[in-house]
Amino acid sequence: MSDIAAIVIGRNEGARLVACLASLRGQVARVVYVDSGSTDGSVEMARATGAVVVPLDMSKPFTAARARNAGLDALAARPPEFVQFLDGDCTLAPGWVDVAEEFLAENRDVAVACGRRREIAPEASVYNRLCDDEWDTPVGEALACGGDALVRWEAITAVGGFDPSLIAGEEPDLCLRLRLERQKIWRLDAEMTGHDAAIHRFGQWWKRARRAGHAYAEGAARHGRAHGHWVSETRRMLLWGLWLPLAILLAAVAVGPWALLLLLLYPLQVVRLAMRRGAGSRFSWQWALFMTLHKFAGSLGALGYYWSRLTRRQTTLIEYK
Predict the structure, then answer these.
(1) CATH says 4-200 is which class?
(2) How far is Cα 296 from Cα 241, in angstroms, rounded to an integer?
(3) Contact by Cβ (8 Å): 164, 65
(4) Domain residue spans in the chain?
(5) Alpha helices (H) along 194-281
(6) H or E element in which residue 53 lies
């Protein structure tokens, strides 16, 4: 077996963690599990599989980036050639590591290889299906990866790992810094992971969308001027989720209630998005509706980031499950 280590992060994942660690058996040489305050026996479960367990110091604000960096620190004494990052609610597809390792070995200018992440129960809720659709990104050179990827040790440590201050969007931030060092990110046409979003309520989805908005705004603030990172995404989000509704309300106050007819722009936007995707599919309409609603939730997340920045307060994790 090649010198590949896995870093798994999780908290109270229970049976999902057991499945996650079992899926790594035979694919990696070493496993580090970073636990962020589990109370369900996750630590004992991980140790029983032979994983090295790193309990995260929960007296400091938690971020997934800080947990992943703790996993890198645990491997530093005997660095592997490659690291497979994996969230505790995911399972690794059989054969993925062999495919990704071979690709990285043949392409020295690629630092990160990722594949197809699938929801294990997309039929359980529209929110799970939206996640499954979100994971279905184009094959080939990419701007960023998600939380699951095979990464070259030398490349990730050369840029200092993940930024532990980020509560979301830490993977695109890392990938941007890698690309600035002339490293590439590549999405392979191969099954990589099964993911269990377990989003069954609108409130969960809304919090996840708020977190994405926070990530967009912070990413644009940090890297937008120099590299254009998430600038257009943030502008579109704020236009539809904040500035346009505010302008309509102000117009209604200034010129009368007829101005509220401008709110019809939103159902028209849903129609436009659904038609672009293919109006014959029910999911196209669901996707269009939730992408429109996403702008409102995301704008609230962005405002939360701007307020924290203005008041110089520590931002806290936006958790949806």
Answers:
(1) alpha beta
(2) 4
(3) yes
(4) 4-200, 203-311
(5) 202-227, 231-238, 244-255, 265-277
(6) strand 52-55
Spatial distance between the Cα atoms of 111 and 104, rounded to a whole number of angstroms = 7
Contact 84, 2 (CB under 8 A): no
Phi, psi at residue 2, to the nearest 5°? -65, 165
Backbone torsions φ then ψ of 30, nearest 5 degrees: -140, 150
Residue in this structure with the two tokens 């990413």, named with its chain if needed: 219
Does 97 score more than 80 pLDDT?
yes
State mean pLDDT over 86-107: 96
pLDDT digits (tens, 9 = 90+) for 6-44: 999 999 998 999 999 999 999 999 999 999 999 999 999
Q: What is the pLDDT of residues 109-164, one digit of tens each?
A: 999 999 999 999 999 999 999 999 999 999 999 999 999 999 999 999 999 999 99
* Distance separating alpha carbons of residues 173 and 144, to the nearest angstrom: 8
